[in-house]
Amino acid sequence: MPKLWNETIDAHRAAVREAILDTTATLIAEGGLRSVTMSQIAERTGIGRATLYKYFSDVEAVLLAWHERQIAGHLQQLAGTRDQGGTAVQRLTSVLETYAGIARQRHGGELAALLHQGEHLSDAERHLHGMLQHLLAEAAEAGDLRGDVPPAELAQYCLHALTAAAALTSESAVARLVAVTLDGMRPVP
Fold first, then answer.
1. DSSP helix/strand/coil, 39
2. Cα–chain center distance at 188
3. So what's the pLDDT on residue 112?
4. Does domain 57-189 have CATH number 1.10.357.10?
5. Taking a C-beta distance cutoff of 8 angstroms, is the pair 88, 139 a contact?
6. CB 63 within 8 A of CB 24
7. Which of 49-53, 141-145, 163-167 is the least confident region?
8. Alpha-carbon Rg of the chain, whole angstroms?
9. For the domain 1-56, what is the CATH code?
10. Phi and psi for 184 in degrees, rounded to 5?
11. Residue 16 pLDDT > 60, yes or no?
């Protein structure tokens, strides 16, 4: 087949896959996790069930693919924040604020129990930990953060402290949590 034909087919498949993921997220938002069926997904996406099964084996597989897409988007957002200008501590602050904002938007209950497991989440956590560790080391080297605690431990501290953002109800509360987290890493006089 000509290259243009293959590119067109690949683009079509990617568009159908994205539409399936978007439709599934909408159906869950409307009726909850337990109410979603493959038939509903196919109908709302505008494809046949046989076509849907060519992409995904069941609803859980669709949900995991959707979650992987969400995580990849979050990591891109965090990397973009990290790559903006400023000192290491300014970039770290921005990344922590962004991460806490993402944590605040997390889904709870049954959906979280299903999705927050597996290798895709572990890979993302390792990537995020490494990103924070690098920023923390850079900020400590500049004298803006404490140097008596290894950056790997400080990265764990940040990640665990900022999971509390999931229970916060305002952006100002999230900002205060980030400030308290940063204050715990300031140099010891």
1. helix
2. 33
3. 56
4. yes
5. yes
6. yes
7. 163-167
8. 20
9. 1.10.10.60
10. -70, -10
11. yes
pLDDT higher at 161 or 118: 161
Burial of 90 (0-12, 13-18, 19+ CB in 10 A): middle
Q: Which two tokens stand for residue 40?
A: 């509903």
Instruction: List the domain boundaries for the chain.
Output: 1-56, 57-189
At residue 15's C-alpha, the angle toward residues 28 and 79, to 5°, is: 80
CB 23 within 8 A of CB 44: yes
Q: How many residues appear in the chain?
A: 189
User: pTM of the predicted model, to two decimals?
Assistant: 0.80
pLDDT value at residue 166: 85
**Collapsed DSSP state (helix, strand, coil) of residue 60:** helix
**Cα angle value 166/171/172 (rounded, 5°):** 115
Degrees, nearest 5: CA angle 13-18-21:
130
Angle, vertex CA 111, rays to CA 104 and CA 168, nearest 5? 20
What contacts 88, CB < 8 A, 6 or more positions away? Answer: 135, 138, 139, 141, 142, 144
